[in-house]
Write a structure and sequence with these properties.
This protein has 279 residues and is of the alpha/beta class. The chain has a single domain, classed as Alpha/Beta hydrolase fold, catalytic domain (Rossmann fold, 3-Layer(aba) Sandwich). 35% of the residues lie in helices and 16% in strands.
């Protein structure tokens, strides 16, 4: 049996943050979506650990990270991410976030721009923009909150719920492996923390800060993403200076699971172009 290239470790504090870590070099942090955890990135860690110290975290209230008392302020995630960078004693990191993870990366940049080397924003959005319909995901804020938390308010079990919904955000014709990996992470949701996260993230926006982003930024979107379709990426490219947009074919909302080779290649090419990957 092949041994995993990563080790699991923790950033102490309140709450304690769990991470899978592999490789050496400049820090690259992978940030999962609202229904996932660090295992969503296990198809990326072996490849990127050849070039970077690659870290996949469990956000607070997810996976093996601690739950926490009280309500969530969305920027709590950014303050946790700052603790991760400080834990590794680095000034800057590359940030790769999918869906909610991409929103965390954008928030982190707004708060701590001098701590970011590059951003890779995948199947995500900055927030709603009343002046441009392309900015928004396919659901309204109210529909998003209602659809995500209603089953759990009525006692749904995360494992059964994940099995029943498995594949809904993936492209038609997705592989069984992609579906299995998506379900594996979603089945581990911490219900109370998940509900807090949905409520805190629903109306959170960094639309006004896109024009201030001044680091190389790659936008990656699945061509069949039902939640954040490619038009969202086109909108973000127009508003983030010098950003690049790549559309991954035959992929839905989980591009890293559905088309991992194309996903990894696009990011490595981007980082190589900007001088962050050595041959």
């Amino acid at each position: 049996m092949t041994q995993n290239p990563w080790i699991t470790t923790f950033v102490n504090g309140d709450p304690r943050i769990c991470m899978d870590v592999a490789g050496e070099g400049n820090l690259l942090v992978f940030l999962h979506g609202i229904g996932g955890n660090k295992i969503n990135w296990h198809l990326q860690l072996p490849e990127f650990s050849k070039h970077f110290k690659s870290v996949a975290w469990d956000a607070r209230g997810y996976g093996e990270s601690d739950d926490y008392e009280g309500d969530l302020e969305f920027s709590d995630f950014s303050r946790d991410l700052l603790r991760v960078l400080d834990h590794f004693e680095v000034q800057k990191a590359h940030l790769c976030g999918l869906s909610m993870g991409g929103r965390i990366a954008q928030d982190f940049y707004a708060l701590f721009p001098d701590r970011v080397s590059t951003m890779i924003l995948c199947d995500t959005f900055a927030g709603d923009d009343e002046t441009d319909i392309r900015a928004s995901r396919s659901q309204s804020i109210e529909e998003f909150v209602e659809s995500r938390i209603r089953p759990f308010l009525h006692g749904a079990d995360p494992s059964e719920y994940a099995k029943n919904r498995g594949g809904l955000l993936l492209a038609p014709g997705h592989s069984e492996e992609a579906r299995r990996r998506s379900i594996e992470a979603s089945s581990q949701l911490h219900v109370e923390s998940y509900i807090k996260t949905v409520r805190a993230s629903a109306a959170f926006s960094r639309v006004d800060n896109m024009k201030n982003i001044n680091v190389p930024t790659l936008l990656l979107f699945g061509d069949q993403d039902p939640l954040t379709p490619p038009r969202v990426g086109e909108y973000m490219q127009e508003h983030i200076p010098h950003s690049e947009l790549v559309i991954i074919e035959h992929a839905g909302h989980m591009t890293n699971l559905e088309q991992p080779e194309a996903f990894n290649t696009a990011i490595l090419s981007f980082l190589h172009e900007h001088g962050h990957v050595t041959d």
